[in-house]
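Quick illustration, no need to memorize.
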Amino acid sequence: MQDHKSIKPTESELEILQVLWEKGNATVREVHENLLTFKDVGYTTTLKLMQIMNEKGLVKRNDSSRTHIYKAAVNKEVTQQFMLNKFISNLFGGSSSQLVMQALGNNNVSPEELDEIQSMIDQLKKKE
Protein backbone atom coordinates (compact mmCIF):
# COMPACT_ATOMS: atom_id res chain seq x y z
CA MET A 1 0.00 0.00 0.00
CA GLN A 2 1.07 3.53 -0.73
CA ASP A 3 2.30 5.97 1.92
CA HIS A 4 -0.72 7.98 3.07
CA LYS A 5 1.14 11.29 2.64
CA SER A 6 1.25 10.77 -1.12
CA ILE A 7 -2.47 9.97 -1.51
CA LYS A 8 -3.92 12.86 -3.50
CA PRO A 9 -6.67 11.51 -5.76
CA THR A 10 -8.82 13.86 -7.80
CA GLU A 11 -12.63 13.70 -7.60
CA SER A 12 -12.77 11.46 -10.70
CA GLU A 13 -10.03 9.22 -9.31
CA LEU A 14 -11.98 8.92 -6.06
CA GLU A 15 -15.03 7.77 -8.01
CA ILE A 16 -12.94 5.04 -9.64
CA LEU A 17 -11.42 4.07 -6.30
CA GLN A 18 -14.93 3.75 -4.82
CA VAL A 19 -15.79 1.23 -7.53
CA LEU A 20 -12.59 -0.73 -6.95
CA TRP A 21 -13.01 -0.70 -3.16
CA GLU A 22 -16.50 -2.09 -3.62
CA LYS A 23 -15.66 -4.70 -6.26
CA GLY A 24 -12.11 -5.60 -5.22
CA ASN A 25 -10.87 -6.25 -8.77
CA ALA A 26 -12.35 -4.91 -11.99
CA THR A 27 -11.64 -4.33 -15.64
CA VAL A 28 -11.81 -0.87 -17.19
CA ARG A 29 -15.11 -1.89 -18.79
CA GLU A 30 -16.60 -2.87 -15.40
CA VAL A 31 -15.47 0.38 -13.80
CA HIS A 32 -16.75 2.38 -16.76
CA GLU A 33 -20.18 0.70 -16.67
CA ASN A 34 -20.45 1.45 -12.95
CA LEU A 35 -19.51 5.11 -13.49
CA LEU A 36 -22.15 5.43 -16.22
CA THR A 37 -24.87 4.81 -13.63
CA PHE A 38 -24.28 8.28 -12.16
CA LYS A 39 -22.00 10.15 -14.57
CA ASP A 40 -21.68 10.73 -18.32
CA VAL A 41 -18.13 9.66 -19.08
CA GLY A 42 -16.46 8.19 -22.15
CA TYR A 43 -14.76 4.81 -22.06
CA THR A 44 -11.44 6.26 -23.24
CA THR A 45 -11.59 8.84 -20.43
CA THR A 46 -12.04 6.06 -17.86
CA LEU A 47 -9.20 4.08 -19.44
CA LYS A 48 -6.84 7.08 -19.46
CA LEU A 49 -7.68 7.96 -15.85
CA MET A 50 -7.00 4.41 -14.72
CA GLN A 51 -3.68 4.38 -16.60
CA ILE A 52 -2.69 7.63 -14.85
CA MET A 53 -3.83 6.21 -11.51
CA ASN A 54 -1.60 3.19 -12.11
CA GLU A 55 1.36 5.49 -12.76
CA LYS A 56 0.57 7.47 -9.58
CA GLY A 57 0.38 4.27 -7.54
CA LEU A 58 -3.33 4.65 -6.68
CA VAL A 59 -4.22 1.38 -8.43
CA LYS A 60 -2.38 -1.77 -9.43
CA ARG A 61 -2.81 -3.38 -12.82
CA ASN A 62 -2.50 -7.06 -13.53
CA ASP A 63 -1.67 -7.31 -17.21
CA SER A 64 -0.87 -11.02 -17.31
CA SER A 65 -3.94 -11.66 -19.49
CA ARG A 66 -5.36 -9.82 -22.49
CA THR A 67 -7.89 -8.00 -20.30
CA HIS A 68 -6.16 -5.93 -17.64
CA ILE A 69 -7.52 -6.26 -14.13
CA TYR A 70 -7.23 -3.31 -11.76
CA LYS A 71 -7.44 -3.11 -7.98
CA ALA A 72 -7.02 -0.26 -5.52
CA ALA A 73 -3.46 0.17 -4.26
CA VAL A 74 -4.54 2.51 -1.47
CA ASN A 75 -6.54 1.61 1.62
CA LYS A 76 -10.08 2.98 1.72
CA GLU A 77 -10.04 4.02 5.38
CA VAL A 78 -6.58 5.61 5.17
CA THR A 79 -7.63 7.54 2.06
CA GLN A 80 -10.89 8.67 3.67
CA GLN A 81 -9.06 9.86 6.78
CA PHE A 82 -6.44 11.71 4.74
CA MET A 83 -9.04 13.40 2.54
CA LEU A 84 -11.23 14.29 5.53
CA ASN A 85 -8.28 15.80 7.43
CA LYS A 86 -7.34 17.81 4.33
CA PHE A 87 -10.96 18.97 3.94
CA ILE A 88 -11.26 19.99 7.60
CA SER A 89 -7.92 21.78 7.47
CA ASN A 90 -8.64 23.65 4.24
CA LEU A 91 -12.28 24.54 4.75
CA PHE A 92 -12.78 24.68 8.53
CA GLY A 93 -9.39 25.89 9.74
CA GLY A 94 -8.68 22.48 11.28
CA SER A 95 -11.78 22.56 13.48
CA SER A 96 -13.71 19.28 13.54
CA SER A 97 -16.40 20.89 15.67
CA GLN A 98 -17.05 23.55 13.01
CA LEU A 99 -17.45 20.79 10.43
CA VAL A 100 -19.92 18.91 12.65
CA MET A 101 -21.89 22.06 13.49
CA GLN A 102 -22.12 22.97 9.80
CA ALA A 103 -23.23 19.45 8.87
CA LEU A 104 -25.84 19.24 11.61
CA GLY A 105 -27.09 22.78 11.14
CA ASN A 106 -27.84 22.51 7.44
CA ASN A 107 -29.43 19.08 7.22
CA ASN A 108 -32.42 17.28 8.59
CA VAL A 109 -30.84 14.89 11.06
CA SER A 110 -33.05 12.03 12.20
CA PRO A 111 -33.40 11.14 15.90
CA GLU A 112 -31.66 7.83 15.09
CA GLU A 113 -28.68 9.64 13.60
CA LEU A 114 -28.50 11.96 16.62
CA ASP A 115 -28.51 8.91 18.91
CA GLU A 116 -25.69 7.36 16.87
CA ILE A 117 -23.70 10.61 17.01
CA GLN A 118 -24.24 10.86 20.77
CA SER A 119 -23.07 7.25 21.17
CA MET A 120 -19.90 8.06 19.22
CA ILE A 121 -19.28 11.13 21.39
CA ASP A 122 -19.76 9.04 24.52
CA GLN A 123 -17.27 6.46 23.22
CA LEU A 124 -14.70 9.18 22.49
CA LYS A 125 -15.13 10.63 25.98
CA LYS A 126 -14.51 7.20 27.52
CA LYS A 127 -11.16 6.96 25.68
CA GLU A 128 -9.87 10.19 27.32
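The first helix runs from residue 11 to 23.
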